[in-house]
Amino acid sequence: MAGTTQKITEDTEVNTTELASVLGLSGRRVQQMIQDGTLLTVAKGRLRLADAVQRYIKFISTDPVDEEDAKIEKGRRKAEATMKASKATIARLEAQELQGKMHRSEDVAAMTEDLIYTIRGALNALPGRLAVDIVTANTPAEASEIIRKEVYKVMRELAGYRYDPKKYEERVRERRDWSERDDDDE
User: 30 and 48 in contact (C-beta within 8 Å)?
Assistant: First the structure.
């Protein structure tokens, strides 16, 4: 075809170099496509131009991924999306924790444990606080009234027990510092 001005038809034949020029490929790539059966020759080193162009278009437009690869890719994309959503959820929860809007169960357990120890201490102190006063009571009713007053006093003290956001924040910082040190060790 080089140097001639003939009309291109379905039967127009070209060599590998001419086809490579038309398709924007190297001559070697055209030869590889002939070897793997993507392009068909009509004679040694000769191809029908129209057929070769159509086969090349079909080759580049078809997805070389088979069904199993497509399933794997779909699974990978789904896992990636799940991972991103999980990371976003974790970041949101950590922000809420730092703002004091959300508490971790272990921190709530520790705060509850503190309250229980406060109650336990107050109840353990009762016998010592009551011993002298009860001995001076003349009647069981008088002893009962002394005990009731002390129990109410303990209950008022416990009613004053309040959640302290600063204590919670201190616990969070302490725990985070420990976890960051643990991460650094690994």
Answer: no
The helix or strand, by DSSP H or E, that contains position 46, with its residue range, turns out to be: strand 46-48
Give the whole-angstrom CA distance, residue 17 versus residue 46: 10
Q: Which pair of structure tokens corresponds to residue 104? A: 């971790």
Q: Is the pLDDT of residue 48 over 90?
A: yes
**Residue of 175, 164, 183 lying closest to 105 (CA atoms):** 175
CA distances from 87 to 75, 76, 94, 167 (A): 18, 16, 10, 28
- Per-residue pLDDT tens over the stretch 75-101: 888 999 999 999 999 888 878 777 767
Determine phi and psi for 43, rounding to 5 degrees: -155, 170
Q: Which residues pair with 107 in a beta bridge?
A: none
Q: How far is the CA of 25 from the CAs of 22, 28, 47, 114, in angstroms?
A: 8, 8, 15, 77
Distance separating alpha carbons of residues 163 and 122, to the nearest angstrom: 18
pTM higher than 0.85, yes or no? Answer: no
